[in-house]
Amino acid sequence: MRCVDGETAHNMHEDPDETLCVNMYEGISGQAAKRREPVIADVAEMLFDPNSSMLPKRKRKSRRTRKSLKAVLSVPILSPDDQEGDLLGTLQVDSDAPASLVFPDEVRAGQIATNFADALSLVLGA
What domains lie within the chain, and their CATH numbers? Predict the structure, then answer.
């Protein structure tokens, strides 16, 4: 089970998902954890696809995101000493603007977020 950590979650105060808990590989961040690579999701598109692997299994969890949420970029935070080893967490960047506007170059956005996650792994691994 993975839960949002209120101490480290930035700018989530009073968001409906500020205390969300999901199974390890559920949701957008779960796909990033499972694939061990960046995942960008268009939330509106995902919510209208009942077969989306990024939807939490219980629909009520998908309603615990703010209604204005439109895009999410999630990357895994991996051990600095062993990129194939333990997952330390995931890093999310979300937006109320569409994914195509916020992340026009998905590869580059994933690279930048992964670089930031790598820096975080050094702090978490300390």
Answer: 2-124 (3.30.450)
